[in-house]
Amino acid sequence: MDSGLKIGVVGAGIMGLSTALWLQRDGYDVTLFDRVEPGSGEQTSYGNAGILARTAVVPVSVPGLLRHVPSMLLDRDGPLFLRWSYLPKLIPWIIPFLRNGKESRVRQIAGALDTILGDSVDQHLALSKGTAAAALIETGNYAYVYKDRAGFEKDAWGFALRREHGAEWEEWGRAKLLEQDPNLGEEAGFAAVLKDHGWIRDPGAYLAALLETFRREGGIFNLGEISEVLPGAERPSVTVSGETHMFDHVVVASGVWSRRLAEKLGHKVPLEAERGYHLVLKNPSHMPPIPYMLSDAKFVLTPMDGGLRCAGLVEFGGVDAPASDAPLRIFERRIKRIYPTLTWDGTESWMGRRPSTPDSLPLIGQSTKAKGVWFAFGAQHIGLTSGPKTGRLVADMIAGRTPNIDMTPFATDRFDKA
């Protein structure tokens, strides 16, 4: 390892910040680039359920999904939304996405996801140790809440897959749920309570604290619009706000916007924006003691410093379309069913663009078309969970250390061959 090397990291969300910090700890001279300040509401890493979902190995595309899509789209309270005008552009992505829902393929994907998710709580604790960000991490249980046991049994296949990858849970009936949270309504009759999880009490503040540490340790943050990453004859470069910066290595970790940069290098990157929403209820009259996944509604309730955050749902509509109102209205309707007496003073809404590949796996590793350029993007809705592990893997590879997991599923050129 040559600690005198200069490295540029494009993207300062959780992926980029994690990568920059691990590289910095290896002794490299690191410059971080983004068009917005880390911790800003414009970042995808800002808006999420905050869950360190270490057992989130079940991808969205699973056996039988296709037959449920029409009912999900037509259901007023369904978890899936589509801007129909965007459908023609989505078809080339959605076809391989659905093909990846075959059981044998899902098992392969789950195994790969487990290698970057299974120790995610420990990875966040290691990344944040000695920083102000550490105080924002909570550890504990994470409950999948159902109306009754029958609902849980419908999800038996997914929970069996989680168990194969180390998940452990307790099963709580309504009496146990009310003992822990007496404000719950009749919609909460059963829960599978997953052990050894974690959550971030304020994702925006968490990112800002990590950036502060990066800067304090000598890292440079450059705010500006990144137009391109080029390999160059000898060294790669980053062009930001019209100015070109040369580096020994460049890491592309700019979420859904990575597609444009990677395709300029000659890669084929079928990256779609899995648009997600959150609604924060400020000064709620009560909050859950731990995060809840409302399994029927497919969104999460997380107790946070800023209030009760409702986060999740999926909308396909591209990168540029404005936010929709319908998902936010679902949050408000469904929260009253789980907490009938809940009141709050105001709300904060958000929409972000989660970078998703057809196989639900990120691209992690060195570009096969551009010497010195590395990829760390495409983690769909588990970017916050997997960011620190992904950053460490990239730092290891740049330093010449062999990762202790199989990196083949995350190959940066796997879509070039399609």
Tell me briefly what this model is:
The chain is α/β, with parallel strands linked by helices and 418 residues long.
Could you explain the architecture of this structure?
This protein has 418 residues and is of the alpha/beta class. The protein folds into two domains: 6-45 and 205-270 and 359-410, FAD/NAD(P)-binding domain, CATH 3.50.50; 54-116 and 137-198 and 271-356, 2-Layer Sandwich (D-Amino Acid Oxidase, Chain A, domain 2), CATH 3.30.9. 31% of the residues lie in helices and 27% in strands. The protein contains twelve helices and 19 strands. The strands form three sheets. Strands 3, 4, 5, 6, 7, 13, 14, 15, 16 and 17 form a ten-stranded mixed beta sheet that branches. α1 packs parallel to α9, α1 runs parallel beside α12 and α5 (120-128) packs across α12. The chain is globular, with a radius of gyration of 21 Å. It starts with 5 loop residues before the first strand and ends in a 20-residue tail after the last helix. The model has no long low-confidence stretch (mean pLDDT 94).
